[in-house]
Amino acid sequence: MKNKSALLFLFVSVNVFAQQYWLNISSPTDNKLKIAHFTDTVFGWAAGDSGTIIHTSNSGNSWVIQNSGTLETIDDIFFIDQNTGWAIANGFFYSGTIIIKTTDRGENWSFSRFYDTTLVLNKIYFLNQTTGFLTGYSGFIFKTTNSGVNWFNTHIDTAYCPVLYLFPKNDIYFLNNNTGFACGGQIDIQGMVWTTTNGGFNWYTYCVASEPLYEILALSENYIISTGGDFEYGLSTVTSSDGGLNWFYEANNIYGRGQALGMRTPAEFWVPLDYIELFAVNTDSGKPGTLWREIQTPEFGGINYTLFASPSLGFSFADSGKIYKYNSEIIGINGSETILPERIELKQNYPNPFNPETKIEYTLNYPGIVKAEIYSITGEIISVLYNSYREAGYHSMTWNAAAFPSGVYFCRITSGNSASSVKMLLLK
Fold it and tell me: How much is the pLDDT for 2?
């Protein structure tokens, strides 16, 4: 009897411990939710089985169903801003890959099919309104420069992994307009990373792990992390500290495979584990040799995808349409935009003084629309470097001031309610 009481106490204690991190919130669907995307801390979408797309316009406090126009399972969804987004579904070998697009926050979706119906593509990513990428089970990486009207096949180098270069690709991520990464592989054969430094026209293949990889993210220009694993070997991670030239593989001795990198802060990751009802949590940027803790998922259920729109606003999505919201009270933050941690960590430009070019680097703590502007000493805006969606992580840009006279200038970066400026000196 004493042993049964102890087991009951342990069960209740673990359940309470899990519930303090994630709270069950109302969902408008009973269909499986497998992927999600937020453009900022207000607007978000989740998608999954039977063509299901749900949308929030109030930071996840309520969700509504949108009509996707398809009954096929939606594998991925991506928005470049609050209005324009794409989703991708598959009829597999019956009708091919389906691409749907919206320009009005998902109120209406246009429908098209990828031109080669023999290919299965399940991942979509856009750099801006016109430039995007498609990849997936078929192993190819396609690019568009006209908003998806036409797609062309990019070149994948085979030097480092002969024969294996067309293995499935499960995720794609760009650090900036030129530098990007993809990850994937095949169960029981190989985990792989592909890198590009010329805007996705050419990709280099690296065999880096024993199991497939499922999501990849760059925290800085040099530090990249990807997570994966399989049923037999459990959670694994690969990291690079030199921009993707070399990769370090680590088996983390936790059962289950890592399906997503839910980055609450650049130091803290919540990785939902497939096959079991656990998160793997790391508070040291997933660096090799650091501790991954096991934390029970809410309601002892499996989680398909986890993301954070900010350090205090996170969501996990599961089967049967279940949605869980991160309980920000445990970190003393109530979710108000006015007291959120800074979105932007802006570094001093270099060189400084400079002539005529200088590099400007910053880290975005969570994704959103970013505007980068150059001001004169009188406060006049003389250049807008960009004003578009950026993923969380490290970013860099170059300003060429050849057309401007010597003097003091300012670079101001804004995202959401956060802004940061740096003073620059041009000497000719």
Answer: 34
Residue 412 or 126, more confident: 126
Residues 6+ positions from 403 with CB-CB distance below 8 Å:
none
Q: Which SS3 state, helix, strand or coil, does residue 210 take?
A: coil
CA distance 340 to 366: 11
Q: How far apart are CA 302 and CA 317, in angstroms?
A: 9
Rounded distance between C-alpha atoms, residue 88 and residue 177, angstroms: 22
Provide the CATH number for the domain formed by 344-426 in this structure: 2.60.40.10
Report yes or no: 351 and 390 within 8 Å, Cβ to Cβ: no
Cβ contact 404:426 at 8 Å: yes
Calculate the average pLDDT of the chain: 86
CATH architecture of structural domain 2-338: 7 Propeller (2.130)
List, as one string, the DSSP characters of 26-67: --S--S-EEEEEESSSS-EEEEEGGG-EEEESSTTS--EEE-
Taking the alpha carbons at both ends of the chain, their separation in whole angstroms is: 84
Q: Tell me the pTM.
A: 0.78
In this structure, what are the phi and psi dihedrals at residue 211, rounded to the nearest 5 degrees?
-130, 160
Place of tokens 């088996």: 251
Domain residue ranges of the chain, discontinuous segments joined by +: 2-338, 344-426
Tens digit of pLDDT for each residue in 363-396?
887 777 888 999 888 778 899 998 888 888 888 8
- Span 218-270, pLDDT tens digits: 988 899 999 999 877 789 999 999 999 999 999 887 888 898 999 998 889 99
Contact between 419 and 411 (Cβ < 8 Å): no
Give the separation between CA 336 and CA 292, rounded to whole angstroms. Answer: 29
Task: Look up residue 138 and give its two tokens.
Answer: 């078929």
Q: Which two tokens stand for residue 417?
A: 């309610």
Q: Left if phi > 0, otherwise alpha if psi is -120 to 50, otherwise beta: which for 199?
A: left
